[in-house]
Amino acid sequence: MMSSVTIPEELVERARESKALTRRDITRAWFIYWLGAEVSNSYERLQSLIFCASMTPIIKKLYPEKEERVEALKRHLNFFNSEQTFGAVIQGITIAMEEQKTCGEPISDASITGIKTGLMGPLAGIGDSVIWAAVMPLLIAIFIPFAANGSAFGGIMPLVLYTAITLAVSYGLAHKGYTLGRESIIGLLQGGRIKELIYGANVLGLVMMGALSASYVKITTPFKIVALEGSEVVFQQILDSIAPGLLPLAAVFAIYFYLVKKGPRYTTILLSVVAISLIGSLTGLL
Fold first, then answer.
1. Mean pLDDT across the stretch 191-200?
2. Cα(11)–Cα(26) distance, rounded to whole angstroms?
3. Per-residue pLDDT reduced to its tens digit, 247-286
4. Cα–Cα distance between 268 and 258 in angstroms, integer?
5. pLDDT at 4 > cutoff 70
C-alpha cells in the first residue's frame, strides 16, 4: 500500500511563481497584436490569426506540455474581431485568465472564449468612436493647412501622432486589462460613463467632419444667364444668398447617402467625382 505524499505549500507557491508572467511578457504579446491587428484579417476568422500569434509567447511560458499548448492555441484561433487600440484590453484580460487557469483557478476553455466574444463588440464600438471618429479627424484637421501650403510636415505629422497616440493608449489598456481582470472591465462597460464617452466622441467626430467638409470641399458654378438689358443672373450668387456652401454640402450628403445605400465602394465614388468634375468643367456648369 503506497503512502500519500503531501507537497509543502511553499513548493506549490514557488512553482506558481516560476510560471508568473512579467511585464515584459505582456508587452511583447501586446506589441505583436498591435502590429498585425488591422492587417492580418482572414475572411473566415478575421483577427483570430494575429490574436493567436500574439498569445503564442504567453502560451509557451504557461504551458510546458505540448498537448496543453496545442489546446490553448486552438482556443485562440476561434473567431475574433475588435478594434486595434481598445481591443488590447481583451488581450490583457485573456492573458490574466490563462495565467489563472495554469495556477489552478476554475477557469474553463469556454469561459476564456466567451469573455473574448462578449467584449470584442463593445470595445470595438468604443475604439471606432474614439480613435476613428474623433482622434483621426482632429489630427487631419490640425495639419491639413500645412499640407495645403505645400509643407511635408502636414502629411507626415498626422501619421506620426496617430501612431504615437494609439501605441500609448493600447499599451496602457493591455496592461490595465491584465491587472484589473475581467470583472472590472465588464463593470465599467455596464456603467453609464462609457455610453457618455461614445456619445461625446461621436459628436466631436461629426463636428470635425463637418468642419473639414466646409473648409476643404470647394465647389462653385460659373453658370449664368444674360437677362434683359444686358444684366446677368449668376447662379452662384443665388445659391450663396440661400446658404453659403450649398454645393459642397450637397456633394458631401450625396456621397454619404451613397455609402449608406451601397457600402464603402471608394473606387466608384472617386471615379464618379472625377467624371462629374470633367463633365461640369466641359459644359461650364462647375
1. 58
2. 25
3. 777 787 888 788 778 776 778 888 888 888 888 778 777 7
4. 10
5. no
